[in-house]
Design brief:
Layout lengths: L2 H12 L10 E9 L4 E5 L12 H11 L5 E10 L11 H10 L6 E7 L2 E6 H4 L6 H13 L7
The structure holds zinc ion (ZN).
Length: 152
């Protein structure tokens, strides 16, 4: 099995870990970190709906909490009661969190129905013209180089 198949298979398995008593929409995700390790996550709902966490962010936070800082690829799969019959795209919040830990031009996002039936995107395709960590660094660097720029 290649890396992509393994990643998608992990995302599909993670749908079984989902806690989704309100929507019954079970989602699983898996991320491939730069270390080569794969981390899984599932959506976790809450009676106070705003406390709900998506599968993709769960997987990314697992990776970050394990010390990872760069993510190369993300796979996501989900469906009603964990039966995956259609492609399940990441929400906007998850796309933004992916942006924090990956290069939008090279990070792959697989939206999968099975290890052989998936759509492949770069993060840039899913989140064009994005705001990321370097946006803040550039601003900070500009302010350091030209401290009076704001007063001109
Ligand atoms: Zn999400």
């Amino acid at each position: 099995m290649d890396d992509t198949s393994t990643l998608i298979e992990t995302a599909l398995q993670m749908t079984q870990k989902s806690y989704a008593p309100y929507s019954n929409f079970h989602v699983g995700a898996a991320v491939l970190a730069a270390s080569g390790k794969i981390y899984g996550g599932a959506n976790v709902e809450n009676a106070s709906y705003g406390g709900t966490m998506c599968a993709e962010r769960s997987a990314i936070f697992q990776a970050v909490n394990a010390g990872e800082r760069r993510i190369l690829a993300v796979a996501v799969a989900g469906g009603p009661k964990g039966v995956v019959t259609d492609y399940c795209a990441p929400c906007g919040l998850c796309r933004q969190v992916m942006r924090e830990f990956g290069d939008p031009k090279t990070m792959k996002v697989y939206i999968a129905k099975s290890p052989t039936d998936y759509r492949e995107y770069t993060l840039e395709q899913l989140l064009p013209e994005s705001f990321g960590p370097e946006s803040l660094e550039l601003r900070a660097a500009a302010e350091i180089e030209k401290p009076s720029a704001l007063y001109i």
